[in-house]
Chromatin modification-related protein EAF3 (Yarrowia lipolytica), 387 residues
Amino acid sequence: MVLATNSRCLAYHGPLLYEAKILMSYDPSKRGSKAKVEDGLPPTVEIGNVVNTHKRKRGPRASLPAAGATPDGDDSNDKNRHFSPKEGKPDVPADLADENEDKICYYVHYKGWKNTWDEWVGEERVLALNEDNIKLQKELKAAALAAAKKGKDFDALAPPEALSETASPAPTTKRKSMASKDSPAEGPRPVKRRGGLAALEDLEKEDDYLKRKEIALVVPDKLKAQLVDDWEFVTKDHQLVGLPRKVTVVDILKEFKKEAEAKYRPGSADADILNEVVSGIKLYFDRSLGSILLYRFEREQYLQITQSPDHSNKTMSEVYGAEHLLRLFVSLPGLIAMTNMDAQSVAVLKEHLEDFVRFLSTHQKTYFLKEAYTNASPAYEALSKGL
């Protein structure tokens, strides 16, 4: 029996089961994708949790809800998911693996995960959401915990939003698998999967994490409008930010630090905290760029950059600029929620982060330039679609 589109289910990801939502289903006997997604729905900004529910207007700027807002309380992209066929196979989804074309499959969104983890899975990986299967889900988690306590290698993939280190999802194309050499073009950065006690800690903290509240960063309206423009340039106009940027993330952080440290006595505790915050922003940017800061259309460019000998010794903060750095501040509240910082430390960090956001706003005309975006070539567009 084919499960209904938009219904809830349990789906295997690694050896564990996670609650998921079925966004589309594929039945080879009917040679079609049962996508209950209507065209013409407002576009959804794919970065973090900021959602743009307005179509582009060349008059007044479209507005964004406050950072942290999510559509219908979920981070699924069903409002922005449209059926795209494979070349020469009009009834087969473009991103469905060849080996799955002859079996029932579901395009699922894992509850609480970023939509970059949405994927087609075979029906053998999907279970109905009922009491028996929920019991199985709990038993699998308990078995994983027991294995971790005994020091056995545990290869479970806990939800990516719950881990401080994560493994990347299985690539669906050859080009995506090439990206696994460095940070992937889709999904979190590739690091060694955690086993033993580390995996145990991940699982035990998973429930606690989901209960945490994100901090609310104040983002000026003109930077929210900047995010809307950025999203439209890339996803609607198929433009790319020229790389490497003349003024990089590293350059911007240096300018901010130079301006901010004038308020503090050299060597003071406040000056030390400022240094840590600046270093932390750079670290977060370098580690999260390939996983959560790119639109799909930009991933081929990222792949080319990471494989270029000219940039082999550079971090991403030495290549990318303000456009991608601003996207980080949409996701930072959720990333900070994954840490174990106490309330006082979070309050201090929040103050410095908002100082930096105001700095970006003050220097918007310097760092955010429309001419930084250029039209992608037809060859690039073909590569980005995996043709």
Summary: The beta strands are 8-13, 16-27, 32-33, 85-86, 89-93, 105-110, 119-122, 126-128, 239-241, 373-375. Residues 8-129 form a domain with the SH3 type barrels. fold (CATH 2.30.30.140). The radius of gyration is 22 Å.
